[in-house]
Amino acid sequence: MSTRKQSLSGFPELLPAERAAEQELQQALESTFRLWGFSSIETRAVEPLPVLAKGGEIEKELYAVARYGSAAPAELGLRFDLTVPLARYVLENASRLEFPFRRYQAQPVWRGERPQEGRYRQFTQVDVDVVGKETLPFSQELDVVRTMRAALASAASLPPMRFELSNRKLLEGYYEGLGISDPVPVLRAVDKLDKLPRAAIEALLFDLGLTPSQTSSVLALASVEGDSQAIRSGVRALGVATPRMEEGLEELLAMLEACAADNDRGRVRGNLRIARGLDYYTGTVVEVFMEGFPGLGAVGGGGRYDALAADGRTTYPGMGLSFGLSRALYALLAAGALSLRGQSPAQVLVSVLSEETRRDSEAVARTLRARGIPCEVMPTAEKFGRQIRFADRRGIPFVWFGEVEGEVKDIRSGKQQSASASTWTPELS
Amino acid sequence: MSTRKQSLSGFPELLPAERAAEQELQQALESTFRLWGFSSIETRAVEPLPVLAKGGEIEKELYAVARYGSAAPAELGLRFDLTVPLARYVLENASRLEFPFRRYQAQPVWRGERPQEGRYRQFTQVDVDVVGKETLPFSQELDVVRTMRAALASAASLPPMRFELSNRKLLEGYYEGLGISDPVPVLRAVDKLDKLPRAAIEALLFDLGLTPSQTSSVLALASVEGDSQAIRSGVRALGVATPRMEEGLEELLAMLEACAADNDRGRVRGNLRIARGLDYYTGTVVEVFMEGFPGLGAVGGGGRYDALAADGRTTYPGMGLSFGLSRALYALLAAGALSLRGQSPAQVLVSVLSEETRRDSEAVARTLRARGIPCEVMPTAEKFGRQIRFADRRGIPFVWFGEVEGEVKDIRSGKQQSASASTWTPELS
């Protein structure tokens, strides 16, 4: 995929076999979301530009949409994530929804960024959120993490995932305990620990007015990681305690313990370096990494918002996790880590002896399809050797000869046997 | 759906229960397409504006896409159908595809039309096409019609569909036999027979220079309709015969007979009023109508292109049918013709006696989910009456009480029984 020249940079398209892998992955995720009681929604591709403005400022990477040839300024833009449309959808339909509203959404988003390795202008996100009305019980917050974890574990084509959890209340409460009055810029500095050397972060914290002792305490917390035991003892060893910090610690420990008990594939650990400083999270924060792809960065993330949406009368807190389906899939394709099938979803090519007997071949296909076995019928009557090569090029493993009571050849092994289209079942490797 | 005020006119969004119906419909179609050996592809939402220009002219209803705040003129537009992107995709990937290339595609398209009854600015199309390289055997052309018919018949929520078939070679060959030198404007006039009174069509044909006798012969052909017998005798009775017309007639009769033999739900008939005059079809043309919705117009259509795509060296003929998923679904929703479930996909709400026993409830949910039964766990411990009402509002039919060996209540009948989460299966109505 990645080695192919694409006609529009940043807008990759998949070949049929790659798309089949994407579909299988997406279906596994969606089916798990439904098992956990999440409903699907889709939102329109465009939003009014003011809705897309974050904090009043319109982001540079936005795509504007306008009627072609119209002189009026654009009023619409393509969505850049699935959280902004969710907040708008919830406000618009609040009276028709039951809360907590558990929804998943798998749709493309667009960002007009300069294309570079791992950056795309159109890519598919898969989001799971729970939105409450005024309140959102912790049980629901926990469910979002467990659901996404179960979903990613259920997708056979994905490697194990590592969930790294932190909590804004814990971090901010700890900073308060150190006498730091404005915790948000500190969070943003800590968030850069994976990208910049430690000395650069110390300089950032110094610029924020932190004393050397505060700086060293902030970095000490950021180095705490591991299972619930390691988090508890690591945090306790720092000797700081505030009510807010305690609340965050309890939430984090509860989440780590619940996930450990689930015993799904992949790891879940605490990591107090995770701050997600650029978003307005107010509790749990999460990043998701694909094991074996250390250079890829996070393939998912999210957290808790006390005010995902608000309309003046009512506040809607939310907890959501976003999985970068395209990001993960394209990395797996580029690494050759997926076993792709051929172009055709068919398992059987029904051969055609002559145009006069095409109806017999069609009857075989009808019988197989009625039993859920995908097949194609040879487009033109040709020598059998050519029909076998036709199947091979399309990645179809079996060729049927004759009528419903006929013979079937496994072109991988070359083995041919008598078979009835009413009872035979393909053995797929 | 249709009665709800939407915040952006022409961009309807569905509530979760409506979306579930859409998903079920789409999944039924896609699963049948795969049974017939069609691969899924998706294309990016945008195309370069010149690709979207039809015959050199850019359509007025196009949406242009540009980086927000950029002074440069827009270079991209949102796709208005799935055929133009398919042709571009085939040319771009010709060396990596096997032909005939059988693909389906279910994606939204955008048209900046003035919103009115039944017109949307974003809507989902589901297209099935076969693309050949230089040649496309008739067997493949036939397969497209049969596949779409089987797919629509497989979707339980759709009413029976009526496929109306015609053939451009038949119509144009007949016009040639009448001595009409330029058949395309005649086709365009005939195409309006369902919208304008007969006298208006006669006036259009007169303006094109047709004699009264030619006009009456053109309208006589347009009134031929019915099964293959009716088409054969109706056409023969007109006493015109040219080689091109014969070829078209044979194709049409073969298609009608093959579809009749398939015996799928819904009707397939010939209708020589179908011309699809505005597109560059060169053989079979099809329109699809939803029985019981006479005012809706066609919900699908398509036909054969001798040159779906061409790159100067190679020509790619194609045959495709497009189904207006949104168009059909919104009409069914507006008519109240779908039985919608509740907001939640869960079949069971696992009640929670107290926060202390939440883990027992989670164990019940884990056991049910492992068996493929979707469920939710009550977010907060409350009185059982409130938990039952919670399930009811979300459309969840069963409430589980106690542990894995517990009791389950069908809240529709009120019946409660002992059950094991390891063996019990919900009876859904």
Number of helices of chain A: 13
Oligomeric state of the chains in view: homodimer
Q: Sheet bearing the most strands of chain A, described? A: 9 strands, mixed
Q: Can you give the helix content of chain A as a percent range?
A: 25-40%
Segments of chain A where pLDDT lies below 50 for 5+ residues?
none
* Average residue-wise pLDDT of chain A: 94
Q: How many β strands of chain A by DSSP? A: 17
- Gyration radius of chain A, in Å: 27 Å
Question: Which strand order spans the largest sheet of chain A, edge to edge or round the barrel?
Answer: 1-5-6-12-11-10-7-9-8
Structural class of chain A: alpha+beta
**Measured distance between first and last alpha carbons of chain A:** 24 Å
Shape of chain A: elongated
Classify the beta-strand content of chain A into a percent band. Answer: 15-25%
Topology as H/E string of chain A?
HEEHEEHEEHEHHHHEHHEEEEHEHEHEEE
Largest interface here, residues on each chain? A-B, 83 and 83 residues
Molecular structure report:
The structure is a homodimer of 429-residue chains. The first copy, chain A, is an alpha+beta fold and 429 residues long. Chain A is built from 13 helices and 17 strands. In chain A, a hairpin with a 4-residue loop joins strand 11 (300-310) and strand 12. In chain A, 46% of the residues are buried. The model of chain A has no long low-confidence stretch (mean pLDDT 94). Chains A and B meet through helix 1, strand 1, strand 3, strand 4 and helix 3 of A and helix 1, strand 1, strand 3, strand 4 and helix 3 of B.
